[in-house]
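Journal club prep — side note

Before the paper discussion, L.F. wants everyone to see what a predicted structure for a comparable chain looks like in token form. Sequence:
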Amino acid sequence: MPEPVRKARGALKSGQFVYFCLVVVVAVVILLPLFWLLVSSLKTNEEYTAYPIKIFPSRPQWFNYLGILYYPPFISAIFRTFGLGITTAAITCITGAMAGYAFARIGGRSSRKLFMVVIVLLIVPNIVTLIPQFILYAKLKLINTYWPWYLAALGATNPLYIFMYRQFFLGFPRELEEAAEMDGASPFQIFFKIFLPNAKPALATILIFAFNAVWGDYIMPTMYLNDPSHLLGSFMAPGFSPQYQTPFLAATVVYILPVVILFLLVQKNIQKGFIFSGLRG
């Protein structure tokens, strides 16, 4: 083997080793808080606050989880929040896809200008629109209902979702659309029979984002519901100080578990969604 080729191969192997070590360090940094949360949720309050700190509990306290799972308000909040999150995420996936399809495939002079408005809205913080939205829903007498979530989903109000769908649909070959038009298909038929069934990566990505936006939100329940404890976010809101700390940690594990499971189920499609939603003109 020539000397230059041997050196290049050796440099490649050393570079791969450095990259592997970097990935391991990043993974440990990310997983360490989750590991500490898990082992702490199995401790007693005395062990959790004791010094010096012990990593593992002397005896796992599975009752911390049983107590949470038998706490009716928490379980009711889980089911309500999960149902609301899945429903609004499904609606958001469809309405956002329709808006992204319109920007990507239905041309026009004003299309690019309207899309620039969407880009500008990406930099507007959500906190800016909270008060105007509350006033609007209050005048419509929709406070203490779930309609603010449903209307936001029907309106595809998140510009990030529209942007991602638009970039994804731009990669579809024009020949598919032209063949469908020659067969007499309408834009709605083209969208629902060709584009939407082939947009699984984008759909999975938006589904996770939209579901997590409801599952991890504590601001909207506080604003729109007279009793915020109907949804799960109020239990995890900042300032909520439970009397027993380790059962609260167990509740936190239960709280993050559905999102982790949902992510693991669709992670391959999410990776494809990010790849195919790259910047396109």
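L.F.'s comment for the group: The chain has one domain: 65-276. Keep this in mind when we get to the figures.
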